Amino acid sequence: MPGYRKLGRTSSQRKAMLRNLATNLLYHGRIQTTETRAKEVRKVAEKLITLAVKEKDNFSEVTKTFKVAQKDAAGRRVKKDENGKRVTVYDTVERKVKVDHPTRLNARRKILSVLYPVTEVPADGRKKRSLTTSVNMAEKLFNEIAPKYESRKGGYTRIIKIGKRKGDAAEMVFIELV
User: Which stretches of the chain drop beneath a pLDDT of 70?
Assistant: First the structure.
């Protein structure tokens, strides 16, 4: 007897579907799907959350210096003439940066190998490329989701049955983060 449901798909299709469902569950917090899919997504999502909870505080803050281009009032780079060439003027800035320890870096890579990249579209619905923003799902897991479940020992998701689907009478459920 296999340790997972095949869901009527080839292995690559099944993996892609579960990655997509897991990404949407963690991004939105709640999705509607069939019961068998929800039970499979639960396994994936809970493992990712557990990984994030274990490694959420495993980093150090380091002060680093960066070269940043000077800008004028209009937001354009300030240039000066130097030996007959126009050269951009830079300032040095010190910033505190989070540096992952090796185990957190490994956890981040595992999380990113499962989750798809998410692009946020503005609320007004205009799908203009310049207005969209990319969401770092690993950071969302470490900074928003993991602190909520810090004291919890598992069971991060809940499945709520909502009845049968009209077309094929499949049992539909909501799966949500507790």
Answer: 1, 125, 127
